[in-house]
Amino acid sequence: MKIKYLVLVVIGLAFGACNKLDVAPLNIIKDQDIFTNETGVTAYLASIYGTLPIEDFQYQPNNGFMVNDGGRWQCFYQPGAICGELAGPYGGTGDAAQGFGFWPYDKIRTVNYMLTNFPKYQKAFASDKYNQWLGEAYFCRAYLYFSLAKRYGGVPIVRTLQSYPEQSITELQVPRNKEQEVYDFIASDLDSAILLMGPTSQRSRANKYVAAAYKSRAMLYAGTIAKYGATNFVDGDARQKGFAGIGADQANRYFQSAFDAAKMVEGHYSLYRKSDDKEQNYADLFLDQSSTETIYAKDYSISSGTPHSWDATMTCRLMTADGLSRAYPTLDLVERFTGPLNIVNADGTPKRFADKADLKKGLEPRLLATIYFPGATLRGYTFDAQRGIYKQFGGNAADEMPNNMTTSWDQPNNLLLSGDVNQLYNGRRIIGLTGIKTDGDELTRTGFYVRKYINYKADQASCGLYQSTQSWIDMRYAEVLLNRAEAAMELGTGDMQADAVNDINQLRDRAGAALATNNITIDSVRNERCKELAFEHQYWYDLRRWRIADKVLDNTRFYGLLPYYVENENKYIFLKQIETFQRSYNFEKKWYYEPLPGGELGKNPNLFPNNPGY
């Protein structure tokens, strides 16, 4: 059945009132009402943008996008918590690795409806406006298909508007396309968007350089899947038929496409450098809506009913109105920036600190703007994380590492732990107000808290559930530089390596880090990506596309940095110990692809075979 009318209340309200009984209701709008005037077209596009699968503050890899769900306040259920950026709240990788049945073909149909019908009204607009809007539709369709491809590999490509009952059920049961065909389709749609759109756009709308940035991401994924998926895979019918996997001979083509797309963005966006204080500058880039680095962002507001709960759920309740945190940065992530921290003397004994904050001295500003260390402050409070009190400590750090939950190195009752932040010993709190408790998970279990995206300017009263309005930056220029550097290193020529060094050094200079030398490797480029994009929902997908998740997450436990007070010395020590959740993380190779949703397989037998291992 051809759709002649669209039920779009938000658009209908733009066309005024009507009191005559012989006039169609306001919420029944004809195509010509939508696609012949700017208000209608922009409102229709807004409805598409509003449903893009942006993995923002509220996204949960086991539950989805949580737009209207009562659990959307739980920002700690994020991808970083299943792969070692954060500890908790998942019991293990398997809690979220197999997805949530994502299948946005209703949204793809909405885009296809515009691509099919809007051209009929082209003469109603100046060519630049018409091309811009059409290009945005291509961009949105590419965004939707990339969200499918990075989960499932090959999926059905639906280029045109499907109609029932004009088309039979059999005709509507579109078969899967090969994974390579899907990535090529994404590239084609983004190329159309780049060709059609202008160089600038309103905030949270696409332009040609926004499309180029996303093309650099998608093509980098395709290239790495082709290269590394050729040697690390689970075999099966879906792989043999090209639905799960891309030929290794295609890798360099995709890497070149990623590099070229990233280079196209150069000169149109730039790294945020508003303050000479590199730590403050890096913290502010995630809060400043005028940032030159932001390429595409999703905005929130109290008035629109779209606020989130990042501030309330990623820092300690002590510093919020009614928050609850359950995910904490790991020492493993911290050591990507620092290597082993300077917490152990040459003889193996723990270094003594008069003030826990002294540990931060000399650390990379970007790290300190990403993670709150013990001794940092927020809203007038101090992150006073402390695991417990040693009455005395005469052992070495290595011997004490396993003793997360036991007593001491030489005598019973020498180590005091507690599950109560108010419990005292000789007038001193045994643990800090910000943790670390022997039970519960509402205080840090690693010694750290997330700082990235925390709105330090907000007062405590406005840091409750559903009160945060900082924007989610879905694409920024730093990622474009990382995409470019990685693609350059994969292409492997001398000139490309020099380009990668330049890309990485732009980031390191802004971060306050030591500059890279010409002996840079693909591993150092990947590590730079992990540091720069920490908590931005990239690392989980990176581990999968690099095909190293089964090695990184192989009965793996992650570490915390646990501070203790040594009473007889009036000093603090830090011990590298397994984070106190004591959880192990494993990755099954079949999880490089998610299973196709069972309900969709039941409706469309042409989707078979399912991905290998399912």
Account of the protein in words:
The model is unreliable at 1-24 (pLDDT under 50). The strands form 7 sheets. A 4-stranded mixed beta sheet has the order 10-9-15-16, with no helix packed on it. The protein has helices at residues 9-12, 31-35, 38-49, 105-117, 127-152, 169-172, 179-196, 208-228, 237-240, 251-265, 278-285, 310-314, 331-338, 365-370, 397-400, 477-491, 494-511, 522-532, 539-545, 549-552, 598-603, and strands at 5-7, 28-30, 86-87, 294-298, 328-329, 371-372, 377-378, 381-382, 388-390, 415-416, 424-425, 428-429, 449-450, 472-476, 559-566, 571-578. The chain has 21 helices and 16 strands. A hairpin with a 4-residue loop joins β15 and β16 (571-578). With 614 residues, the protein is α+β, with helices and mostly antiparallel strands.
The secondary-structure class comes to: alpha+beta
- Percent of residues in β-strands: 5-15%
In DSSP terms (H or I, runs of 4 or more residues), the helix count works out at 21
Q: How large, in whole angstroms, is the Cα Rg? A: 26 Å
Largest sheet properties:
4 strands, mixed
What is the share of helical residues? 25-40%
Q: What oligomeric state do the depicted chains represent?
A: single chain
Taking the alpha carbons of the first and last residues, their distance comes to: 35 Å
What does the average pLDDT come to? 93
Anisotropy-based shape? globular
- Strand order, biggest sheet? 10-9-15-16
Low-pLDDT segments: 1-24
Q: Could you give the count of β-strands?
A: 16
